From TrEMBL, chains A, D:
Source organism of the structure: Nitratidesulfovibrio oxamicus
Coiled-coil zones: none
Position of the signal peptide: none
Name of the featured protein: Anti-sigma factor antagonist
Alphabetized Pfam families for the sequence: STAS (PF01740)
Domain STAS: 1-110
Family (UniProt): Belongs to the anti-sigma-factor antagonist family.
Transmembrane intervals: none
Domain of life, per lineage: Bacteria
CDD domains linked: STAS_anti-anti-sigma_factors
Entry-linked InterPro entries: Anti-sigma_ant, STAS_dom, STAS_dom_sf
TrEMBL record, chains B, C:
Signal peptide extent: none
InterPro entries referenced in this protein's UniProt entry, alphabetically: HATPase_C_sf, HATPase_dom
Gene3D superfamilies: Histidine kinase-like ATPase, C-terminal domain
Protein name (database record): ATP-binding protein
Sample GO molecular function, one term: ATP binding
Domain Histidine kinase/HSP90-like ATPase: 7-133
Natural source organism: Nitratidesulfovibrio oxamicus
Lineage of source species: Bacteria, Pseudomonadati, Thermodesulfobacteriota, Desulfovibrionia, Desulfovibrionales
Length: 111, 138, 138, 111
């Protein structure tokens, strides 16, 4: 799993690509923790490059959700592909997330 | 049935995925993400819980099966740990809970059940045998 | 899974029945006639058609399986003849015909289908693999 | 499979016991053929001792049915146990046979 981090109007956009599974989710966790520790208080997670997610990946996402909730960090998602969307739906994650079609829309939602 | 035997270790997931990708018949490639997901969920559990404090192994098999006259892609996963039926022993998660109340984990078996048409468990020859039947894409 | 391997020969039916009787768990003895019947129907076909003009063998296995969470007694029969799926290839008999119009034979597969809850067929490792799932007596 | 043959008021009662399967059905066939060749023209088949029948056994019964039909031989059955009855029912044999609860009733039906 790779990621890039961009600042857009004070919103941190973290874009991930690759597979989000039991062997890679640690990299996901590290990436968002580093951003929060660096003081980010509005975060967009762009999953456009993620072609696969397992329950290990969901565990990472849930950790992020809990951290943002308790830290008062704004959080939005975009780029949810077919496979990721189905796993989110089956797990009841869709309703817990602020999901947007594009990074622009996600950034705007946090503005 | 084409089978792959791997040591019980997380770094084997890549080899398992490669094996599965090689086994899925042409025309059924759309099943790949679901089959890989199911294999990962089962194997991560085997690697984590089946052999506490000792080395072990797992076996993965793929084949086409007609069940009650309907064709399925069948994934079989086998381990030699203590008897454990994830389908009846793992608790059903509450997927309606919000962020604050959500326990971390417990979704793996639920994901599998949602993606397969049939699942089976048996304990025999000192091993846990799980078979998952994936409906073919239209 | 407890398995028995026998040469492809009709006189093995007695040994197969003895094996099955020894495998049926206590409390499920009521299943015995149905399971013996299904085994006989499959094996007689294997012995008659699977190895034309040459010797061969068959394997019979018994185990308990939970399919979709429901417990079943499972009978598995395997042979190494040419690929043949009796459930899709054997024609459905017309059980409403009268004496004069009734063809001799063709009822074996129909009997099996009527007595099991689920049946499966797969061809792998150069063998025909059939599994029959018997619902447990109440 | 064992059998006994008894003459009752000119009706031949053939009583079978044991298993009627692929390895034993030949003995069943021999028994009824011998009776027909000996001139029997009314036949009762008492299955009271038959605890098991397979499609090989059904084949034997169908052969008997056809022979009696073409030879004008009266035929009745009795002593159908649970397992045999279920196999008859599943195969559609019940409607082809004249079935009676006891040998007496079967003999009477052919009188
Ligand atoms: N192969 C196994 N052997 C023994 N125990 C297992 C096995 N798989 C799962 N478990 C138990 O079942 C629980 C639920 O599993 P699962 O639904 O995958 O959630 P988790 O995300 O907690 O692993 C695990 O926490 C573990 O206690
Ligand atoms: N194991 C087998 N291998 C090849 N052909 C078979 C096998 N089993 C059955 N068959 C074919 O299917 C037909 C139907 O089988 P079945 O329903 O048992 O009736 P039958 O009483 O004619 O054996 C057989 O006549 C045979 O041609």
């Amino acid at each position: 799993m790779q990621h890039t981090s961009t600042d857009r109007d004070g919103v941190t956009v973290l874009a991930f690509s690759g597979r989000m599974d039991a062997t890679t989710v640690a990299a996901f966790d590290e990436a968002w923790r580093a951003r929060l520790e660096a003081g980010a208080n509005r975060l967009v997670i762009d999953m456009g490059g993620i072609e696969y997610i397992s329950s290990a990946g969901l565990r990472g996402i849930l950790g992020l959700l809990k951290a943002c909730k308790s830290g008062g960090v704004g959080l939005a998602f975009c780029g949810i592909g077919e496979m990721v969307g189905e796993v989110f739906r089956i797990s009841g994650f869709t309703g817990m997330l602020s999901i947007h079609p594009t990074a622009d829309a996600a950034v705007a939602a946090l503005a | 049935m084409a089978t792959l035997s791997v040591p019980a270790s997380l770094e084997q997931l890549g080899a398992v995925n490669e094996f599965i990708a090689g086994q899925i018949p042409e025309g059924l490639a759309a099943l790949l993400p679901q089959v890989e997901l199911a294999a990962e969920e089962l194997l991560v559990n085997v690697f984590s819980y089946a052999y506490p404090g000792e080395p072990g192994k797992a076996e993965v098999g793929c084949r086409m099966v007609r069940l009650d006259g309907v064709p399925f892609f069948c994934l079989a996963v086998r381990d030699w740990g203590a008897p454990f039926d994830p389908f009846s022993e793992a608790p059903e998660p509450d997927t309606a809970l919000g962020v604050a109340d959500r326990p971390i984990g417990g979704l793996g078996v639920h994901l599998i059940k949602s993606m397969v048409r049939h699942y089976s468990y048996s304990y025999h020859d000192a091993s846990n045998c799980i078979e998952l039947y994936f409906a073919l894409p239209e």
